[in-house]
Amino acid sequence: MIEIARLHKLDNDSSLKAFADVVVEEAFVIKGVRVIEGKKGLFVAMPETQGKDGKWYSIVTILTDDLKKEFQDTVLAAYNA
Question: Is residue 42, in this structure, part of any structural domain at all?
Answer without folding.
Answer: yes
